[in-house]
Structures are given as structure tokens and as C-alpha cells.
Amino acid sequence: MDLKIIYEDKDLLVADKPAGIDVAELSKMLPENYFLIHRLDKNTSGVILVAKNEEALIFFQKQFTNRDIEKRYLALVVGEVGEEKGRVEALIGRSPKDRTKQKVYLPLEPGAQNQRKAITDYKVIEKFEKYTLLEVYPKSGRKHQIRVHMAHIHHPVAGDEMYGFKGQVCPKGLHRQFLHASFLKVKMPNGEIKEFKSELPENLKQILLNL
Q1: Which of 171, 179, 178, 176 has the alpha carbon at shortest distance from 211?
Q2: pTM above the 0.90 mark?
Q3: Are 105 and 112 in contact (CB under 8 A)?
Q4: CA distances from 166 to 88, 161, 162 (A)
Q5: Where on the phi/psi map is residue 67: left (φ > 0), alpha (ψ -120 to 50), or beta?
Q6: Is 41 part of the annotated catalytic residue set?
Q7: Which candidate, 71, 74, 51, 16, places its Cα nearest to that of 183?
Q8: How many percent of the chain have pLDDT more than 90?
Q9: Both ends of the chain: CA-CA distance in Å?
Q10: Whole-angstrom Cα distance, residue 185 to residue 196?
Q11: Which of 128, 130, 137, 204 is deepest in the core (most CB within 10 A)?
Q12: Residues 2, 41, 98, 121: which is the catalytic one?
């Protein structure tokens, strides 16, 4: 695979993952002793970190575990988001009805005591007819977190077939969920703070232009 490389040094490789590539598939394509540090959903594009040795893997994964990494995503969601910024704070866990999906658990719901709290902040970037473009800041790292939280507040990510509502509108030409990992801020082994950015892919830019 011809991955676009954003940054590389002796410990870290930062790539721009295209949509449609599963992280398991991506892992198999990496050189021996290279390790994915975190995950992106198959149909989410953007910044992904790769450790070039085990020491770097442990160093960077600890930052994710401790929530020391600053992450930003761009998401086009269905409907008009009224407030200019907001926070979703809700328990997320595996759905008992479909083990491939996650769901929000209400505090008194059966099984809620076994689930983990997840926090997602967001702000409005631009409003369109039937859609809103958000910059999203996940404060935790639960599986499918942004997609589940946006659906929970009745603004599912546009093009999201798993968590979208039955019969929901979808922009013409959008064949994936409109979710892009645009920014990561990390501490390097030498103590330096680095920021890595990924531009919105051309096909998603075109969707916004069409709107």
C-alpha cells in the first residue's frame, strides 16, 4: 500500500490512513517489528501512529491510556446541531443484541454497572441544510465512541450505516461515514511536543462543496 507519510523518525511513523482499510489489514502490511499504536475504524480516515520498536509502542500507548493525547476529528452529522458547542458524557459498552456494535447504557439499565464512561466534546464548524459539520474532541478512547455518542444525541454521522437511523438522509456521493481524524498532539520520547495534521480527503471536501 502506498501510504502517505506525515512524519517519520527512528521511533515513530505517522501515516495518513485512507478510508476502507481495516487496521488489522494495515498491521499485516507493516514491516516486521512495526506496531500500530492505536485504532481507527475501517471507514474513518486520517492520522494514525505506528511505533517502530517495542519501547516506542509502550511509550506512546501509555499516553493514550492516560488520556494525555489530544485528538481532533471532523464529522459531518445529520440534522442541525442547535448549540455551538457541547459535551456527550455517557456509558458505552458492547451491545448484547449485536456483538459487532457498541451502545450507550443508561445509568439504571441492566449491565450499566459493567460499562465504562466515555466523554466526547464538540463544536460547530459550519451548518448546512440537513447537516452540521463538527470538530470533535474525544476525551476517552472507547470503540466507535464518536459514532455512538453522535447517534445518542440524535445526530448520527452522515453515511454511517451501522449507527445511522433507518431511512436517514445521506449526501449524494458519500459512500462512507463522514469521519476524519484530523489532528493528534503527542509528547515525544525526548520530551518535545509534536502536532500532526491531516487534511480532509478530496472526496469529503467535494461533499461539503456540494452541500
Answers
A1: 171
A2: yes
A3: yes
A4: 22, 9, 10
A5: left
A6: yes
A7: 71
A8: 82
A9: 32
A10: 6
A11: 204
A12: 41
